[in-house]
Structure formats: C-alpha cells, structure tokens
Amino acid sequence: MIDSDYTVLIVDDSSVNRSYLHYVLDEDGYRVTEAPSGEACLQAVPVEKPLLILLDVVMTGIDGFETLRRLKQDPSSAGIPVIMLTSLEDQLSKLKAFELGAVDYIVKSANEAEIKARVRVHIRLSLANAELMRSRAESVSQISSAQRALLASPAEVPGACFAAWYRSLHEAGGDFFDVVTVAEDLYFYLMVDVAGHDVGTSYVTPAVKVLLKQFATPTYSVEETISCMNGVLAQTVCRENYLTAFALRLNRRSNKAVYLSAGHPPALYLPIDGPCRFLVNKNPPVGMMEGVSYKADSVDVNKGDRFILYTDGLVEAPVDQGQQSISWVAGKERLPAIVEGLRQLPLDEFPAALVVAMGANESIDDDVAVLIAEV
C-alpha cells in the first residue's frame, strides 16, 4: 500500500500536462492526485492533504499566483511546499512566485529526471521540517508538563489552606508559585513572575523551588530568605533576566503574617471582618544584582482572613473588549471591588471566579497566576 503521506497534488488546466506529470511521479511510488483549476485545488487540499503541490501558473479562472496566495493565507495549507509549473522564462514571474511563497519552479520543458529530482528534494525537506517540528513540540510539551508539576497543590500541603489558578501564555510560562511548610502552622507562600515567556524561563522555576525549600526555614527571616535566593539566582540562572516576587509567611499560631514584595504587584488582604486593602511593600526585583537588601512588613490576622497573591496578567485584561491590555498599575485599581464581591465564595472556587471576573480567562499577552491563602 502506498503511504498516503507521500501525496502530490498536480494542479493544471491541461489534462495532457496533468497526465504526463502523473505518469512521471507515479513511477516513483507517490500517491498522485489532480485538480484542473485553482478553485479545484483549494477544495482538494483539505481533503487530500498533499505533502507537495505542483501548481501551474497560467490557468483559466484564478491563475496559479492567486491560488498560491490563497494557499499561503490559509493556516491549514500555508506550510505545504508549492512548486510552480511554468512555461514562462521571464525573471519577474519567477520572483513573483518566490515572493508569494513558492519553494521552487519547474519549466514545463524540463525532462523527467529534473522533475523527479526537484520533487524528491522538496518532499525530503518537508518531511524533515515536519519531524523537526514534532520533535520540538514534544520537547516543549515535556518542559511544560515538568514545569506544571513543580507548582504546589493544596493536596500536597493540606495545612497551608490555599487554592490557586494558573495559565501560561506559552508552553513554558514565566509565572510560578510555591507553598512550603516552614514549621507546624507556619507556611511560606511565594508568587513569582520571571521576566520573559520563552523556554529559557522554565529553567528558573525549578531553581526557585529548590532555593525556597532550602531557605524558607525557621532559621531565616522572610528578608533573609529572599536575600539568599537573590544572591544565588543573580550568580546563576538569572544572569540574563530577573524575577519579581511576593512572599508571604503566615503563622497561624501567633496570628501574624509577614509579607515582602520584590518589584511585584501588591497582594490584597481580605480580612473576614473588614474591607480589603493592598499590602504595599517596595523592594527591588530578585536576581537582578547581588548584595541587595530587602525589607518586610507584617500584619495581625484572624481566622478566616484571606490573602490574594497574583501576577500582573490578572489585572492587565482590558475592561472593554477589543482594547489593548492595560498596565498592572492601572488594572489593579478595580481589583478590590471585585474581590469584595466574591468574599462569600468557598476558598476552592475563589481563584477561578476572580480570574473570570477580571476578564483574565480570555486570551491576553501574558501568563496568569492567582493564589488565595486563608488563615
């Protein structure tokens, strides 16, 4: 049985030309299909799924150039290599074909050997490119799965009493959160936004997770924890970038919360018996330079109080559909009123409802992470 992956579509309004090319390619074992016009070609492509198209330039109806233009405009067919068939010898026609996306051209007077050779070359290139894309997609998918596996889950740290929502813009996102048990009834929550959205950011997140586990202990204050992480990251994985972070250490025995913002949007504190407010705390980002000192603040808490940690993607969604994303500085201003309207929701429903209410569940040009911690 002939492998259907090796399908070649011949498009020519001359039945004689189609028959000749069909005969030539059939000798090499290709599955050959034909279309008598540009319109027929556009209809045949999604059905036949050719690996290569031989397309005549001069045809009745839409010509080869217009057919090629439409093929390249359609995402489903844009990647199919097209070789133009022409009896035209002028340079302008050849240049136009290449400008529109053709990979090669064959003059109709070419002999069988040349036709076969050109077809072989471009089918090999097409198959190699497809394999490369599959391999890259698989690698990135593995990176994405590994990165998501690093995110803390409520089931893994049940005493931490938190819920979260996460979505990355690309396969490997720059947003990251973690929750660590420091001691009995003492937990460290960290929300991070690594500068950039490429695969390189995925190397920062495991480093952050390891360092947090190492330095979020009773022997380190919140300031010391972030300072130590900064010193290591600045010398290693953050040489080419940096990260912003919001750290929260919540002690349920002493009812005390210590927080530190390192260049990150302020968390929102939602007391059970009072209005919500931002926890403003200014410090430089992490990993940008060595020798940076950090300053934390604290707040007394009660059972049932909540802390909303988030990345800027949550607040950058435009208020009106069709507008461009707004800055987090402007976007966060509508956050308190929305949070107040959701305060009666169960903890596990809160993050997703907040994301939807802020419009951040729609496609925007940033990662989105939300973590809600409850006393």
User: What is the CA-CA span between the terminal residues?
Assistant: 66 Å
Largest beta sheet: what is the strand line-up?
2-1-3-4-5
Tell me what portion of residues adopts beta-strand conformation. Answer: 15-25%
How many discrete structural domains?
A: 2
Number of helices: 10
CATH topology (level 3) name of the largest domain: Phosphatase 2c, domain 1
Structural class: alpha/beta
Q: Under the CATH scheme, which architecture of the largest domain would be assigned? A: 4-Layer Sandwich
Calculate Rg over CA atoms: 29 Å
Q: Biggest sheet: strands, sense, closure? A: 5 strands, parallel
The CATH superfamily label of the largest domain reads PPM-type phosphatase domain
Any idea of the CATH class of the largest domain? Alpha Beta
Q: What spatial form do the alpha-carbon principal axes imply? A: elongated
Please bin the fraction of helical residues: 25-40%
Mean pLDDT: 85
Order of helices and strands: EHEHEHEHEHEEEHHEEEEEEHHHE
| Unreliably modeled segments | 139-144
E-strand count: 15
